[in-house]
Amino acid sequence: MFSSERSFDPFTLVIGILFAAMSVVIARNPASSLKTLIFFIAFALIFEGVFKLFDIIMIDKALGLNPTWLIVSAILDIVLGGMIFLRPVLGATFIWIMLSLSFILDSLFELWVSRYIRQNNKSYFWLNVILGVVGVILGIILLFSPATAVGVSIFLLSFYFMFFGILLIVRSF
């Protein structure tokens, strides 16, 4: 199954090149990339809601739990996805708020975890605290600057595609 000799994988190389090319396309066309991302989020929310509704039958049979909250969550996903699909501005607002809150909450979590790190590694503790504080500040800045938050989300998407593309290209050899 696993061998010590490596062989060239052309499929991984092609996928890596496509990811890197997609990164350049996203960076060069941020407005159309944002629209595509918004519609992707809308379809994902609708799909998630429908999937949850079908999943209710399995959960009810397997666990015997009350599916009320799952039904409410599924309906909210479908409604939010439909609203974003019909009014793409809501999708940009969704991206703005979710990115800002994720920065803030993730950084607060890092600050919370740093108290456990302090006992083991002082230098890592201070790095974690500094990055946590910077993350909270950036999250607050993004929360009050929607255009910056949406721009950052497009940049992060482009960066992810480039990083993953390079990783796949290197892995193919």
How many beta-strand segments? 0
Radius of gyration of CA atoms, rounded to a whole number: 21 Å
Question: What's the N-to-C terminus distance?
Answer: 18 Å
SS strand fraction:
under 5%
Using the alpha-carbon principal axes, give the shape: globular
Oligomer: single chain
Question: If you had to describe this structure to a student in words, what would you say it looks like?
Answer:
- This protein is mainly alpha-helical and 173 residues long.
- 87% of the residues lie in helices and 0% in strands.
- It contains six helices and no strands.
- The longest helix is centred in the N-terminal third of the chain and has 34 residues, at 30-63.
- It starts with 9 loop residues before the first helix and ends with a helix.
Brief digest:
The protein has six helices and no strands. The protein is mostly helical and 173 residues long.
Annotation keywords:
173 residues, mainly alpha
List the helices and strands and how they pair.
Blueprint: H1 10-28, H2 30-63, H3 68-86, H4 88-117, H5 122-143, H6 146-172
Helix pairs in contact: 1-6, 2-3, 2-4, 3-4, 4-5, 4-6
